[in-house]
Specification:
Number of strands: 9
Radius of gyration: 17 Å
Strand content: 15-25%
Oligomer: single chain
Distance between the termini: 12 Å
Helix content: 25-40%
Number of helices: 11
């Protein structure tokens, strides 16, 4: 089993997808798969992606299918992902440096209980975005970019899919559901994971009124503490970490 499943939703991203894939292919850490989920591009997106069939080999898995938006594409890719950890990169974003996956894998292995872990993102407009952290007073006011977050695959079973009722901020909703799930262990690290294109994109241009109403209702609430960690789960996680080494 690959360590990471890197999910890359695309739609008419020919101008940027090559840089995104190049930033993945150049990583020193290679235990990953790339799931490019295309919503029906009519430009040169798939042709650009196909040029990485050599460098990435069987790790690049391309699927083109009409979808109901970026979060529907992400849901579809999650359901076919085989890695232990899920990571979502925008088609106009790039991973930071050549060893960020190795460094994050090391951080994860040092925290065998963690199920959601995040770092920071570098803004394309300049500077580094200090992420708010998974704390109620912070996360109810500022989301954490999904380009900074890694989710263990069992989060899909515990939290579910992205909610398509929120076409712009379903990722914010997903993070809030992680926060208020008593079954998840969440941590953060001082690591810039990716350069995020904050100059354009879905959430940059379109507020999600439906989710803002939902978010307002959550302010002031306190999430439950993480559930106790059973011995069988500790043993399983230790075995997985040993195998991944």
């Amino acid at each position: 089993m690959r360590f990471f499943s890197i999910i890359l939703p695309t739609l008419n991203a020919a101008d940027t997808v090559r840089d995104a894939l190049a930033s993945i292919a150049s990583q020193s850490f290679t235990s990953y798969e790339v799931l490019l989920q295309d919503g029906g591009s009519t430009d040169n997106t798939l042709a650009q992606a196909a040029t990485f069939a050599g460098p990435l080999g069987g790790r690049l898995k391309i699927q083109q299918r009409p979808d109901a938006g970026v979060y529907d594409a992400m849901n579809r890719a999650m359901r076919r992902a085989q890695g232990r950890w899920f990571y979502f990169l925008g088609a106009d974003d790039v991973l930071e440096g050549l060893d960020v996956l190795q460094r994050m894998a090391d951080e994860i292995r040092a925290r065998p209980r963690v199920q959601v872990i995040h770092g920071q993102v570098r803004l394309k407009s300049g500077g580094v975005l200090p992420e708010s952290g998974f704390q109620p007073k912070l996360l109810t006011r500022n989301n954490i970019c999904h380009q900074a977050i890694f989710y263990r695959r069992d989060v899909l079973r515990l939290v579910g899919d992205y909610d398509l009722a929120y076409p712009v901020w379903a990722d914010w909703d997903y993070n809030m559901r992680c926060l208020f799930s008593r079954r998840l262990d969440i941590d953060e690290v001082d690591l810039v994971v990716a350069t995020y294109n904050d100059l354009s994109g879905l959430s940059h241009a379109n507020p999600d009124a439906a989710y803002l109403a939902q978010l307002k209702a959550l302010r002031g609430k306190t999430p439950p503490p993480p559930a106790p960690w059973p011995l069988w789960q500790r043993a399983r996680r230790s075995l997985e970490n040993w195998i991944d080494r």
